[in-house]
Amino acid sequence: MDQGREMDLKVKWWLEKDGGLVLGKGRCMLLEAIESQGSLREAARVCGISYRAAWGKLRASEQRLGQALVETQPGKRGMKITPRARQLLQIFHSIDQKLQETTDAIVKKSLEES
């Protein structure tokens, strides 16, 4: 039996600026839900958080970055993510994939050595 497959190393990480959270898995989920739902209210519902909490998380991240992550469409209802938000999502997912590959390798090597 391959013991390396019995255990996984889990790592929780996020991006910060000036000591404050900018982007983590939860905010990524929120931005992706805004993109798919076209609405902050629906995105909050999908993510299982209140509208107020979703709005607060977005505003806090935007303030720390000094850049907008979402925008409304003039004359229309709804919301969409900005090109900068899309870029940050790609960066986050790229880092996350690399971290997962690295932690998998560490677990496998450590278990083989024990």
Write a short abstract of this structure.
It contains 4 helices and 4 strands.
Provide the CATH architecture.
Answer: Orthogonal Bundle
As a percent range, the share of strand residues is 5-15%
**Unreliable runs, pLDDT <50, ≥5 residues?**
none
Residues in helices, as a percent range: 55-70%
Instruction: Supply the number of structural domains.
Output: 1
- Profile the largest sheet: 2 strands, antiparallel
Question: Using only CA atoms, what is the Rg?
Answer: 18 Å
Mean pLDDT: 91
What is the terminal-to-terminal distance? 14 Å
Count every helix, treating DSSP H or I runs of 4 or more residues as helices. Answer: 4
Structural class: mainly alpha
CATH topology: Arc Repressor Mutant, subunit A
Question: N-to-C SSE series?
Answer: EEHHHEEH
Give me the side-by-side strand order of the main sheet.
1-2
For CATH, the homologous superfamily is named as: Winged helix-like DNA-binding domain superfamily/Winged helix DNA-binding domain
Class, according to the CATH hierarchy?
Answer: Mainly Alpha
Question: Overall 3D geometry?
Answer: elongated
